[in-house]
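Progress against Task 2.4 (sequence-to-structure conversion) is shown through the following example record, which the project officer requested during the mid-term review.
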Amino acid sequence: MWERMLAGEPYVADDPDLARASARAHRLTHRLNTMDPTQHEAVRAVLVELLGAFGDGSEIRPPLHCDYGFRTTIGARTFVNWGFVLVDVARVRIGDDVQIGPGVQILTATHPLEPEPRRQKWEASQPVTIGDNVWLGGGVIVNPGVGIGADTVVGAGSVVTRDLPSGVVAVGSPARVIREL
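Structure tokens generated for the chain above:
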């Protein structure tokens, strides 16, 4: 199933190999979420083990929840506040100097609309890319397949359903550009 998932093709979500990789992420996030947050080096070591890449000077405040961890890369000097949810079935790329508010969700999994394939646990995924110096306000939801350009601000509570260009402010559900920066 890994090959299908990595290729963005439909796959069965309860595959044993996928379950083992997810269990690894759950063990590491449990460790992270129960650590003393003032133990910065130990927290960073867990994040480096969990994620595909974790840039210098970056910080994630627990709790963090993710499917796999290693499917996500985070650039340098990025700050992620409490309650970050990463459904990182597809790749998630977060740039340098990104600010992510509390309760933000980045979602890559997609599911069939038809009931029978859903019963059979089929799903697919689409990657998400967050450019450098983006600010995602509290409670933002980024949907599968979305790219957010550098220097863009997404207002609190917004739901990003399609790509956003660089250097804009976007708000609402669905998020719409309200001004250029």
